């Protein structure tokens, strides 16, 4: 079952998000966890969270937001984070979460869904290449001083 993340999910979500951060080798701490959890549970914030629940346990998470697409003067859904518990991979959970976002795209009149992944994430790219188009852009990040 796919549903919005709820307050009761914080412990399970934290475990999954720590796994996501570890995969990308990003240090994680309670300050970041609490801030992101606050954003997800704040109806006035732009970050939304959904989960895949199996036997009363969330085993997959996705964070997304609405983002303007100026070149088309339309909005698009942006998938920020997607993670499935390694013990539950191979069950098409990631694909089901993305399909759910596609249905949200239709109901919100977005011009589609966009996301990025690291170039070394071959497992994810196998799925993404089956269900979406790689539009060829490379991502750059300019850090503040």
What's the helix and strand layout?
Blueprint (H helix, E strand, L loop, with lengths): L1 E3 L5 H14 L6 H11 L7 E7 L2 E13 L4 E11 L8 H15 L5 E3 L6 H10 L14
Parallel strand pairs: 4-5
Antiparallel strand pairs: 1-2, 2-3, 3-4
Explain this structure to me?
This protein is α+β, with helices and mostly antiparallel strands. The chain has one domain: 3-Layer(aba) Sandwich (Aminopeptidase), CATH 3.40.630.30. The protein contains four helices and five strands. The protein has helices at residues 10-23, 30-40, 93-107, 122-131; strands spanning 2-4, 48-54, 57-69, 74-84, 113-115. The protein has a five-stranded mixed beta sheet with strand order 1-2-3-4-5. The longest helix is centred in the last third of the chain and has 15 residues, at 93-107.
CATH superfamily label: Gcn5-related N-acetyltransferase (GNAT)
Q: Please state the second-level CATH architecture.
A: 3-Layer(aba) Sandwich
Structural class: alpha+beta
Give the radius of gyration: 15 Å
- Helical fraction: 25-40%
Q: State the helix count.
A: 4
Annotation, overall tally of beta strands: 5
Q: How large is the share of residues in beta strands?
A: 25-35%
- Based on Cα principal axes, name the global outline: globular
One letter per element, helices H and strands E, the order comes to EHHEEEHEH
How many individual domains? 1
The biggest sheet amounts to:
5 strands, mixed
| CATH C-level class | Alpha Beta
Q: What would the CATH topology be? A: Aminopeptidase
Strand order in the largest sheet: 1-2-3-4-5
């Amino acid at each position: 079952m796919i549903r919005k993340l709820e307050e009761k999910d914080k412990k399970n979500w934290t475990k999954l998000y720590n796994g996501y951060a570890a995969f990308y080798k990003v240090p994680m701490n309670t300050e970041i966890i609490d801030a992101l959890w606050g954003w997800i549970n704040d109806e006035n914030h732009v970050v939304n969270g959904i989960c895949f629940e199996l036997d009363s346990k969330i085993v997959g998470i996705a964070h997304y937001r609405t983002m303007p697409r100026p070149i088309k003067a339309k909005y698009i859904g942006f998938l920020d984070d997607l993670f499935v518990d390694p013990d539950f991979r191979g069950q098409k959970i990631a694909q089901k979460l993305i399909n759910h976002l596609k249905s949200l795209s239709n109901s919100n009149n977005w011009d589609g869904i966009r996301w990025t992944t690291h170039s070394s994430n071959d497992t994810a790219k196998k799925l993404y290449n089956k269900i979406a188009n790689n539009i060829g852009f490379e991502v750059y990040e300019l850090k503040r001083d």
